[in-house]
Amino acid sequence: MVGLTTAPAHAAPSVEINLVAVNDFHGRINTNTTKWATTVEAVSADTTTPANTLMVGAGDLIGASEFASAIQDDQPTIDVMNTLGLDASAVGNHEFDKGWADLRDRVIGPAATPNATWDYLASNVTVKATGATALKPYQTYVVDNGTPGDASDDVTVGVVGGVTDETPSLVSPAGVAELQFSDEVAAAAKYADILKDGNTANGEADVVVATFHSGAAVGAKSSFEAEVAKGGVFARMASMTGSVDAIINGHTHQTYAWQGPKPGGGTRAYIQTGEYAANVGQIKLTVDAGAAPGTNPVTGFTVQNVARAGAEDLTNPRVADVKQIVDAALANAKVVGDRPVGAVTADISRAYDGVDASGKPVEDRGSESPLGDLVANALRDGVAADIAKPDLGIVNPGGLRADLVFKGDTATNPANTDGVITFAEANNVLPFVNNISTVALTGAQVKKILEQQWQPVGSQRPFLHLGLSDNVQTTLDPAQPVGQRVTSVRINGAPLDLAKTYSVSTFSFLAQGGDNFTAFTEGKAKDTGLIDRDLWVKYLSDKKPVSPDFAREQIYVSGLKDSYHAGDKATIVFNRLDMLPSGVKNTRLELVKVRNDGTTKVFGTTTVTGGQARAVFTVRGGKEFRIVAQDSKTTLARGVVLGKPTMAHKVFPTKSSKIHAKKTKVRIKVKVKSGVDLAAKGRVTVKVAGRKYNAKVKDGVAKVKLRTFAKPGKYKVVAKFLANDTFQGATDRFTIRVKR
Predict the structure, then answer these.
(1) I need a labelling partner for 49 at 20 to 30 A (CA). Which of 256, 396, 454, 615 fits?
(2) Between 5 and 286, where is the model more confident?
(3) Cα–Cα distance measured from residue 387 to residue 527, given in angstroms and rounded to the nearest whole number
C-alpha cells in the first residue's frame, strides 16, 4: 500500500499507520451493511495519512451468515470485503465450514484470478502430508512515507495470522482432515520474530501486527488484567513476543479496546469489535520511520471501537458500490426468503445471559434453550420412517444462529406479519446447510456424549449445552467427578439401557465429532441425504404454529436416587431451573403423588428462588412421585417401590380357655407396622370359620369383632392387609382354639 505525505526530502518523520479492524462479520448482508461500510470508510479516513490505512480482519467474515449471503455461498460478503479494500485477515473456523477445498478453490480462488482479493493468513495451519503452511503465515505491506523518489523512510508492516487451534472440533472434521492445527499464539510468535530478526533473506518488517481468530472470553464487563489472570489463549497472547506491536482478536464475539504491557518494554493495543458489524475497530500506530534497526519504532498508539453509523453515506463511492451489492443480494434473497413457511405463538430463542455494553443480549451456549430443544424435536421427527426411525434428536448450541421471533416486519415483506416465520427466518436459525445423519449408538455412548458437554480443559467454552428432543431427560450434577456428572438419562420415560442401541438424529457436524463430541464417532453414522434447512422448514410447516417450551430436558440436581421406597426421606437440591432468557420464572415446586390408576395428588410445595430450590419430603406411595416446577412444567419423576408392612395380632380373650363355642365373641386386634416414616393406612380383612370380616386400619391398628363360633375346635385365621397406593399387601396366619 502506498501513501503520500508532505514531508521534505530525506526526512524521517513519524508515520501514522491506521489499522481498521473487523471480526466475526458472519455474512451480515442486510440494511445495516451500508451503514457499517460508511463507518469503515470514515475510520479509514480518520488519520493524518489516509493512504497509510490497512484494513485487517480477524476471521469468520463468512459462514453462519444471514440468508441473503448464505443462499449465494457468501459471495455477496466476499464482494463487499473486496470493495472496501480489505487487505488481510486471519482465517476463522467458519471459513472452513464447507471444507478446506472450498476455502482454497472457491473462496480464495486461483492466484491469477482470485475471488477474495485479500490475504487470508494462518501461521498455525499446515498440510499434514507435507508440513507446509496451508495458507500464508504472514504478509507484508509497504507504507510509503511520501518522500518522492526515496524509499529509505518507507515503513513495512507485517501482518501475521492465526486461527483457534480448536477449529477441527468446530467444523465438520472431514472437511479439514488433511490439515493440522497447532497453537496459534506460538506459531504467530515464531513468524513475528522472523520478521524482526534482521535477516532480509527471510523477510523483514518494521512493524508487526498479529491478527487472531481467538481472543478474550469476556470483553466489556471485564478488563485486560482480569482476562490475562484467567490463563488460556489470551494470557498467552499477552505474554507473546515483543516483536508484535498490536493484536487484533476475534472468535469470542466480545467488544474491547485495551492496552497492556509488551514483553521487553512498552505497551501494545488489543482490540476485538464484537460481532455482526456492530463496530469498526481502529488502532493508530505512531511509527518513527527513522528508527534504528533492532529498536522499537512504535512510539505511541491509540485504540478504540467505533459504533456503526446510524445512516449510510452514499456520496462515498465505495459505500455506493457496497449498496449495489447488498441491494442485489437482498433482491435475490427476497424471492425465496419472503415466503411464509410456518408460524410461532411467541419468541423461541437461544439462551442468553445478561447484555453487553451496547445493551445487546449475550448468547450463553452453556445453557439450555427452547430453540435448541425444538430443533432437536425436528431432527427426531423430521426424518421419514422409510429412511430411519430416530429415537432422539441432539443439537449443538453453536449450530443455532438466530431466534424465531413473534413480532413481524412488514416494511419489506407484507406477508411477514406477527407470528409468521418466513423461509429466510427459518434459514437464519440453521444457516450451515449440514446434512442430517443418524448415528447408531449404545446407551453407554449416548451417556458419554452427554458427559462431553463438559469440554476439554483449556477450551474457550468450558461447557456446551446440547439441545435434546423432549422425550429425553437427563440429570446433571457438576460436583461429581469427570465422567460421572450425568447422573441419569431417561428416554421415553425408561432408564437408559447402556447395552441397547439407540438411533440418534443429528447434524453431520456432530456426527463427525464436531465441538469435541468425539463419542459420536464411536457409533455407526448414516447420511440420510436430508439437509438440515429443508428438514427444518418442513417441520415448521407441518407443526405450525410452534410454541416455546420452557420445561428443561436437562436438570441440574443433587441428592437424587434412581428409585425410592414409600416412606423414604428425600432431600433433593435443584439449580438452574429457569431457562435464560424466559418469560416463565419458576416460583415453586409441586410434590406430586401418582397413584396406581394414574390419578395425581399434590402433597406439598417448595419455594423456588432464582432457579434454585431444596425439596425435603417423605416419599408417598403410588407408582411414582413427580416434582413439577411451576410454571415451566419442568418435571422430574422417580418410581416408588411400595414397602411391605409387618403384621402382628392379638386375640381377646387372651386365654383360649376363656373362648367358648356359642358363647364368646372373640375380638382380634391386628397391628400393621410400616417400618418407615409413613403411617400404615388401609384396610384389613379377616377370614375365619367361613366368614370374612373387614376393618379399617387406624393408627396402625385394625379391630375386628367375630361372631360366636358354632362348635369347639381349632380355627384357622387369615388376616390380610390389602395392598394400596402406599404399601404392598401382607398376610398374617394364626389359629384360635375354641372350647366347649
Answers:
(1) 256
(2) 286
(3) 10
pTM exceeding 0.70:
no
pLDDT tens digits along 368-421: 999 999 999 999 999 988 888 999 999 999 999 999 999 999 998 999 999 999
Higher pLDDT, 695 or 387: 695
* Closest among 438, 426, 686, 621 to 540, alpha carbons compared: 426
Options 3.40.190.170, 3.90.780.10, 3.40.50.720, 2.30.110.10; CATH for 338-543 is 3.90.780.10
The C-alpha cell of 321 is what?
458500490
The Cα–Cα gap between 484 and 454 comes to 11
646-738 matches 559-641 in CATH topology? yes
128, 94 Cβ separation under 8 angstroms: no
| Mean pLDDT estimate for the chain | 93
In CATH, what number does 646-738 get? 2.60.40.1930
| Lowest mean pLDDT segment, chosen from 4-8, 152-156, 196-200 | 4-8
CATH number corresponding to 18-310: 3.60.21.10
How many other CB atoms sit within 10 Å of the CB of residue 518? 16
Q: Which CATH class is domain 559-641?
A: mainly beta
Residue 121: beta bridge partners? 90, 136
pLDDT of residue 146: 61
Assign 157 to helix, strand or coil. strand
Rounded CA gap, 152 and 11, in Å?
9
Q: How far apart are CA 2 and CA 54, in angstroms?
A: 11
Of 290-294, 406-410, 420-424, minimum mean pLDDT range: 290-294
Pairing relationship of beta strands 569-575 and 554-558 according to DSSP bridges: antiparallel
Q: CA 629, CA 550: separation in Å to the nearest integer?
A: 10
C-alpha cell, 627: 416434582
Tens-digit pLDDT profile for residues 123-149: 999 999 999 999 999 999 998 766 666
Q: What is the DSSP letter of 471?
A: T
Q: Give me the mean pLDDT over the 3-24 stretch.
A: 66
Cis peptide before 76 (omega within 30 of 0): no
SS3 per residue for 321-386: HHHHHHHHHHHHHHHHHCCEEEEECCCECCCEEEECCCCCEEECCCCCCHHHHHHHHHHHHCCCCC
Residue type present at position 698? K
Question: Cα separation of 51 and 54, whole Å?
Answer: 8
Q: Is 186 helix (H, G, I), strand (E, B) or coil?
A: helix
Task: Identify the DSSP state of 234.
Answer: H
The model's pLDDT over 205-229, given as tens digits with 9 standing for 90+, comes to 999 999 999 999 889 889 999 999 9
Give CA–CA dist 315/307, Å, rounded: 20
139: which DSSP letter?
A: E
Nearest to 447 by CA among 403, 396, 493, 500: 500
In this predicted model, what pLDDT tens digit does every residue of 20-47 receive, in sequence order? 999 999 999 999 999 999 999 999 999 9
CA distance linking residue 205 with residue 208, whole number of Å: 7
Write the DSSP symbol of residue 514.
G
Strand partners, 702: 670
User: Cβ distance 530 to 470 under 8 Å?
Assistant: no
Cα→Cα distances 140→116, 119, 124, 160, 358, Å: 17, 10, 17, 9, 35
The pLDDT of residue 221 is 83
In angstroms, the CA 715 to CA 686 distance is 12
Q: Where are the domains of the chain?
A: 18-310, 338-543, 559-641, 646-738
How much is the average pLDDT of 352-378?
92
Contact 192, 140 (CB under 8 A): no
For residue 136, list its beta bridge partners.
121
- Our separate counts of H helices and E strands in the chain read 14, 41
Average pLDDT over residues 582-593: 91
